[in-house]
């Protein structure tokens, strides 16, 4: 079984996910733009049982980050863990988005991802 690992910028928080994600996406919503400081967020969702983390995190609106360096890392509950893919150690990843959310907020200069399902807002 494949394991992907990553960490925050300072290395105090580490994450690992096993197996294939349930889904891989990009989101252009206002919250994701604010959180990432970029035009979108690239993430994947795994079953919570396939997710591990070590180190101390803080949370804002359900999103965990490193209190030392401020890196945004993941959102997790009892069922699923959504990992910010930019924190993974190996880049580029073999993971390709299968959908895009909030495309009505996508920058006009950014092309849709070929083959990815497009949603004006959230998935329905």
Alpha-beta classification: mainly beta
Order the strands across the largest sheet as they lie in space: 6-7-8-9-4-3-10-11
Question: Count the strands?
Answer: 11
- Give the count of helical stretches: 1
In CATH terms, the superfamily is glutathione-dependent formaldehyde- activating enzyme (gfa)
User: What is the chain-wise order of helices and strands?
Assistant: EEEHEEEEEEEE
The general outline is globular
State the end-to-end distance: 31 Å
CATH architecture: Alpha-Beta Complex
What number of domains?
A: 1
The average pLDDT value, as a whole number, equals 95
How is this structure best summarized?
By secondary structure, this protein is mostly beta strands. The chain has a single domain, classed as glutathione-dependent formaldehyde- activating enzyme (gfa) (Alpha-Beta Complex), CATH 3.90.1590.10. The model has no long low-confidence stretch (mean pLDDT 95).
């Amino acid at each position: 079984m494949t394991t992907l690992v990553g960490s925050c910028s300072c290395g105090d928080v580490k994450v690992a996910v096993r197996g294939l994600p349930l889904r891989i996406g990009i989101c252009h919503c206002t919250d994701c733009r604010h959180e990432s400081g970029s035009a979108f967020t690239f993430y994947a969702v795994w079953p919570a049982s396939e997710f591990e983390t070590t180190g101390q995190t803080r949370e804002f609106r359900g999103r965990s980050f490193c209190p030392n360096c401020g890196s945004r890392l993941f959102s997790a509950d009892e069922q699923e863990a959504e990992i910010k893919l930019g924190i993974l150690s190996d880049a580029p990843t073999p993971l390709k988005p299968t959908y895009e959310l909030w495309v009505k907020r996508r920058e006009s200069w950014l092309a849709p991802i070929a083959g990815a399902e497009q949603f004006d807002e959230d998935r329905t």
